[in-house]
Amino acid sequence: MVDAARRRATYDDVLAAPAHLVAELLDGELSLVPRPAMGHTVVASTLGAELGGPFQRGRGGPGGWWILDEPELHLAADVLVPDLAGWRRERLPSVPASAAYLELAPDWVCEVSSPATTRLDRVRKLPIYAREGVQHVWLVDPIARTLEVLALERGRWTLLLTASDEAPVRAAPFDAIELDLSALWSGVDPNA
Predict the structure, then answer these.
(1) Residue 5: which residues within 8 A CB-CB, separation 6 or more?
(2) Average pLDDT over all residues of the chain
(3) In this structure, is the dihedral angle defined by the CA atoms of residues 100, 66, 97 and 90, taken in order, positive or negative?
(4) Integer Cα distance of 62 and 174 in angstroms
């Protein structure tokens, strides 16, 4: 039986969380997961670097984006920390230097899966991203070495692409360049 008197978590709970955990508020509940493992961190960092040059800096690509690592997002009453997020500069012309978080939903989010976060990313966070109008979500699995690309269509997620490292891919919304997925897992041992 659900305890109707259970207190809804607040941002103070996020702030009070231990530093070695990632704290998020999802539908009024505090979610605490361990900081990512090194393979997860390498994959997220490499992907950010791969997209940052052409899309944030305009080197070899169209520019016009902000690509941020682990931004804190305040979306309605939810607080989320995706692995990567991107905003088109026409929606977010500049990033406020002194802000601790952003309240504008991103145009793109990437969640890098780990055993501790896969269910959370798919079951709890995807509906929030849809509700807030995030147009694209990438789900990257460094152990299976896969990329899933989702697009929001009429309030529902549509799978546009599932890829692994066999060949370069073009993945929305960054399909102006080919992405070599094998570069993401280079040096990461999925069995260790």
Answers:
(1) none
(2) 92
(3) negative
(4) 9
Q: How far apart are CA 164 and CA 140, in angstroms?
A: 10
Total length of the chain: 192
Residue 169: both structure tokens together = 């891919």
- Torsion angle of alpha carbons 102, 104, 107, 110, nearest 10°? 30
Backbone angles phi and psi of 106, in degrees to 5: -70, 165
Q: Read off the pTM.
A: 0.93
CB contact burial 121-149 (16+ within 10 A = b; e otherwise): bbebbbebbbebebbbbbbbbbbebebbb
Task: Tell me the C-alpha distance between 88 and 1, whole Å.
Answer: 45
CA distance 96 to 94: 6
Question: What are residue 129's phi and psi, to 5 degrees?
Answer: -60, -40
Q: How far apart are CA 181 and CA 183, in angstroms?
A: 5
Nearest to 178 by CA among 187, 192, 168, 165: 168
Report residue 137 as tokens: 């979500």
Taking Cα atoms as reference points, which of 152, 184, 163 lies closest to residue 50?
184
Q: Which residues contact 99 (CB under 8 A, 6 or more apart)?
A: none
The model's confidence at residue 6, banded by pLDDT at 50, 70 and 90, is low
